[in-house]
Amino acid sequence: MLAEGETLVDGYRRRDNVTDATLIRYCGFYGDPAINKEDIFYFVYGLLHSSTYRETYQADLIKMLPRIPKVTDFWGFSSAGRALAELHLNYETIAPHPLVETRKSEAPATAILSSTSTE
After folding, report:
1. Ranges for the Type ISP restriction-modification enzyme LLaBIII C-terminal specificity domain (predicted)?
2. How many domains does one find in the chain?
């Protein structure tokens, strides 16, 4: 039996961790009723992986839970978070980048260390 808010996906119970109240707040703040809970999840995922976010809140992230600010580009972070999650979850299915091996014709120079005594 599934609890309220749960669905079965590939035999697993899926439970939304974004509340209805959060969904209402985001839709209202951004003035976009098309935003759904999955979009908010990926927005947070993208935001938490942003180097600007991590630098700005570095001191706070060490000692407390992350603060999730409202930003001007909701859909930019949501799209980036979705793409990043795709890479994180499915990295093993992506074809490896072709490697090019280069060799130098000369052997690397060897440094000779000498010690001098100053007595």
Report:
1. 12-106
2. 1
The Cα angle at residue 67 between residues 61 and 72, in degrees rounded to 5: 125
Q: Hunting for tokens 């490896």 — which residue is that?
A: 96
Domain that holds residue 37: 6-93
Smallest CA-to-CA distance from 43 within 18, 19, 61 is with: 18
Q: Does the residue 76 lie in any domain?
A: yes
Q: What are the backbone angles phi and psi of residue 43, rounded to the nearest 5°?
A: -60, -50
Indicate yes or no: pTM above 0.85. Answer: no
DSSP track, the chain: -PPTTEEEETTEEEE--S-HHHHHHHHHHHT-TT--HHHHHHHHHHHHT-HHHHHHTHHHHHHSPPP----S-HHHHHHHHHHHHHHHHHGGGSPPPPP-----SSPPPPPPP------
